[in-house]
Amino acid sequence: PQPVYLKDYRPPAYRVTHTELKFDLSATDTQVHAALHLERHPDSEPGLPLTLHGEKLSLKHIAIDGQELQEGEYQVDDATLTIPEAPDRLRLETVVVIDPQANTALEGLYLSNGMFCTQCEAEGFRRITYYLDRPDVMATFSTTVIGDREQLPVLLSNGNPVERGELPNGKHFVTWEDPHPKPSYLFALVAGQLEKVEDHFTTMSGRDVTLQLWVESENLDKTEHAMRSLKASMKWDEETYGREYDLDLFMIVAVNDFNMGAMENKGLNIFNSAAVLTHPQTATDGAFQRVEGVVAHEYFHNWSGNRVTCRDWFQLSLKEGFTVFRDQSFSADVNSAPVKRIQDVSFLRTAQFAEDAGPTAHPVRPDHYIEISNFYTLTIYEKGSEIVRMLRNLLGWDTFRKGSDLYFERFDGQAVTIEDFVGCMAEVSGLDLDQFMRWYSQAGTPEIDAHGEYDYANGEYRLTLRQRTPATPGQPDKQPLHIPVRVGLVGTKSGEDLTLTLEGPEGKENLGKDGVLHLREDEQTFVFTNVAEAPVPSLLRGFSAPVKLRFPYGREDLAFLLQNDSDGFNRWDAGQRLAMLALDDLIAAHRNGVEKVMDPRVTEAFRSLLNEPSDDKAVLAEMLTLPSEAYIAEQQPMVDVDAIHAARNFVKQWLAVSLRDEFLSLYRANQSDAPYAPDAEQIAQRSLKNVALSYLMSIEDEEGVELARQQFEAQHNMTDVRAALTLLVHSSRGDIADPALRAFGEKWAHDPLVMDQWFSVQVTRPQSDALDRVKYLMDHPAFSLKNPNRVRALIGAFVGQNRVNFHRLDGEGYKLLSDVVIELNRLNPEIAARIITPLTRWQRFDEQRQALMKAELERIRAEDLSPNVYEVVEKALA
Ligand code: B3K
Ligand code: ZN
User: Peptidase M1 membrane alanine aminopeptidase domain spans which residues (predicted)?
Assistant: First the structure.
């Protein structure tokens, strides 16, 4: 497979002004009739042939303006259909036959539980019909769906239904019209036995929009939260961005087999059932929040993505980074904002930083790819969102909003580039964002080494920041970035933020109590004057840039910030840094085989957290949570999975022993019989209670075990049930865990989303029998490699969350993963190329593990590979 380059972008030879489709649905022989109204693109190079994309299509008929084409007038290969002498304006008709049932890749038209559905982004539409399948070709669509009346009572597509009727042979049809020009990747079709819940939303200009959520009948009781989230998102986008919905109908469909979370098809969003269905008895608080976030994300795409779309797939972060930023802001507004920020940053620092440090590192706007499906990454999404957040912070909200308005107004109905977006921000603010653009082209996580000096005599504080971005594949040399660093100086006597007076080139500048420093050079020193007392700097407040910042904090400094920092995020981060220092010592002790000694300052910091009642329970729960093994691993020069596991357990157990009574009373204080609600207050209470329980269970405290047992048996809601079950299954108390697991499995055998949790809980068990458990469960009748959610629940959870067992020294964990990758490479290349990720990070481990991991990668490379897996494996072994 050959790479595609950004620099090779050319406008298409033709544009499509209108697309008419007719589907005659059948599981194995669906007939797709397409009539494309084409005209030469004014900007295209003259003389280019008309070339359409098409894969796995069986062409039955082709005609131009009613004239059947003869052999020799067109050429077909496995990826294209070319008509060398097409007129400048034409109506091209094709009839193709496709096989949805054989489609296990879940791209294009496929079957899920007997239901027809589509996934076209990025390049799935070419598996449905011959087309100019690229985002800069936008057309209005008219789609007729024909299906069996009994089997497929519901027939959906984008836009508004304009006609329906009966046909011979027990068939019926519905015709849909979408008046908004759209690229093919936003096309959608759904047909099956579905039921709907319906609601309404009145837009800010007073239009009535019908909202429909389509699910299988047994899931009708799991739609309330998604519908509520949808209405909240619509309102939020009107109030926050001034964006109104633009059709009379908005539909969401839940399907069981889906590669990603959901898809923003115009007027007909298709969702992984895991990202839409919730019920207090089946979904955890985390799932409720994820549903809220994904519903919002897909809805927000209607403007950031659909009305204004991407010129080419290199611009993917134009819509994804901006839309993630929008959904994160929405979730922050409707829940606990500091906790949302903490969770988003934890995720970024753990998973995206690891991507940036590995062999598949790429810029937020890549300059080449082999398989675009491999680029729906944490870098494009999460780092992309951080870049937009930096713009918001640099401009301030009001100016940023003006830039956003200008962008939507100027480019409405167009397919544009990241320059177009940033250009609007520069235009409304007058800021020079040229250097800032490097955030889009330079891969890797910038590192800032900070150093501070307090000059008593002159009352000056000098802060020196040095930036460096490590080399990444294909980018050996990096240039300095424009990095906004939000800082405060916390007075060590007062515990208060000191007023910042910055010595600038044009004299003194008053930054108030916290201000943004603009780091643009490799190294810069910032001098603050009138600093009356010795300060501890609070750096990168709110995580103002996606960087790693080092500062030689002493442990007392961190304990001080944990108590006094006015920035909630940095207060949490000080606790994490303090825990990391202790963990580093313990990891070293474990490796050197010496006795582990706990830093008393950590225990004391936790004691104060537990003893001083905090008004923000949600933040407290985050503060009491130790850095994850994955995050700790990211901080180590070489990852020692066993030492990390041992050190973290040691800290956890030490704290549990030292603060047992505190944890017990914390648990009791947050127990509640109130009917379940997924609101911020209850969620905070449950997380606090379950954090406390996890400490007690880490030492298998008798009372703790009893509380876990009772909590499981009370069956109050899935958050509590799952937390208790996980703690029991991960303990040595098989006497309680085994019957609980059995009861859970029997009770929920009919519910795939709950069974996914049943699988995950077992394979994340840290004990050494976990790998056998994985193998055993892979033979379970409910396991299938064809269902991505199940693959993630079993294989993904094992390789991602059970680090000690995946990285077993006999290499059996690696072998299991590569066996799965080899199977999935045939069935579903997109999922195969994602699940392989942990193997690609071999450079981070000791020599023995490196050799084992590389051997498995070589074994995969010897297979007949899909472009997806090929691209990842080649990079990993480069
Ligand atoms: N835009 C989709 C991505 C689906 C692509 C899968 N190959 C999901 C989202 O970001 O909303
Ligand atoms: Zn998206």
Answer: 226-439
